[in-house]
Amino acid sequence: MVMRFNYDLVVIGGGPAGLAAALEAENSGIENILLLERDKYLGGILQQCIHNGFGLEYFKEELTGPEYAGRFIERLKGSKIKVKTGTMVIKISKNKEVLALNREEGLLTIRAKAIVLAMGCRERTREAILIPGDRPAGIFTAGTAQRYVNIEGYMPGREVVILGSGDIGLIMARRMTLEGADVKAVLEIMSYSSGLVRNKVQCLDDFDIPLKLRHTITSINGKKRVESVIVSQVDDRLRPIPGTEEEIKCDTVLLSVGLIPENELTREIGIDLDGVTGGPVVNEVRETQVEGVFTCGNVLQVHDLVDFVTEEGEIAGRAVSKYLKGEREWRDQPVRLEPGKNVRYIVPHRIDYRDKDRKRIKLFMRVKEPGKDVKIKLRDGTGKVLLAYKREIVTPGEMVTVFLPEALIDENMSRIKISIEKEGR
User: Fold this and answer.
1) What are the backbone dihedrals phi and psi of residue 165, each rounded to the nearest 5 degrees, phi first?
2) Strand order in the sheet with 215-221
3) Helix 65-77 vs helix 306-325: crossing angle, to nearest 10
4) Tally of structural domains, the chain
5) Which phi and psi angles does 372 have, rounded to 5°?
6) d(CA 30, CA 27)
7) pTM, 2 dp
8) CA 68, 70, 76, 82: dihedral to nearest 10 degrees?
9) N or C: less crowded end of the chain, CB within 10 Å?
């Protein structure tokens, strides 16, 4: 038997992005909302992030991951939002029909007037980066190890090498050390750490854990269990340099080598994905090319701060309300936002709407290379500088945000190019 439901809004994903989107949509006047989460509990990855440092931007106080998630879950209890956990979405159609499955109700067909995609992201594995060598036990993604230690109560190993200096890898270097493990080294193929500066300081420097830049694992050794890894330096093209090999004895390898937005459902609908972010191409209200389908959080772009994830969820939630109420006014032509010098990507990708109540649009971007004493310059199609922001430091591991005032967007404007340049140029 197939159960059928009708909702104004269906939010897919009960992590910080989905929670924020659902709550903000209700706060903006949408009443008939369904939130779907495949796990047995809400909060997403936050539930296994027991360290503090969350909420400094949004709540102006320092919280652990479960505490941060708990704030929104508590708000949900006082709402009329319908929640189904343990429910896997298996298909979405262009006419916004959602096919889902759970143990209690079986197969569900849900018709929605609007959808918010908030499925989060997953970790890259050994297979994704093609590390050669044996195939022993003891190789984990950093997030899997984090779950084992913080939720399941298991220690993945005692002598650890971590590949990649992403935030989860840095945090797990500290966590494993606190649990009594010997973290031999954190290896990073780039010439800079790919995590937040504060995490590098608090998780490595404060615990005297070595960070080896421009190094990678060229072989994993061991039959039943990891016994050692071969580490090599890399050249400017990130290729291992012969003769630089070093063997490090260990029983565990943790991989923190990047995150991939969970966009299998998005791709099936036919929504275009950005080749850099791996997430959908969206306008300033996080709407995709399929009208009424919005997206936010790590499924759109991988964030380093959950505060930004929440902010993006709220942008989508408010936009759903305007969409369902028919309160939107299209521009005569969209304004494309184009990455310039030392900018990897920009979200949103374009500006589609006029909004008399909106004073400014927040732009999120990442740089290609670290820089000091730079200016972020916004230019129109003629090359004229519309606005410039100073930054003392920019690094690929930290999201860069600036505001584009609504008043600067001319009706005849078709594009704005954003570059990050040395100050004075």
Assistant:
1) -110, 35
2) 215-221, 228-233, 246-249
3) 20
4) 3
5) -125, 145
6) 7
7) 0.95
8) 110
9) N
Q: Which of 297, 327, 357 is the last residue of a domain?
A: 327
* Tokens representing residue 229 in the block: 């890894």
**Whole-angstrom distance, CA of residue 159 vs CA of residue 293:** 46
How crowded is the C-beta side of 140, counted as CA atoms within 13 Å?
22
Per DSSP, the three-state class of 8 is: strand
Give residue-wise pLDDT tens across range 71-120: 999 999 999 999 999 999 999 999 999 999 999 999 999 999 999 999 99
Domain CATH for 365: 2.60.40
Extended beta strands in 237-384, E state? 246-249, 252-255, 259-261, 293-295, 329-339, 343-347, 350-354, 360-367, 371-380
User: Are residues 80 and 26 part of one domain?
Assistant: yes
CA nearest neighbour of 300 among 287, 291, 290: 287
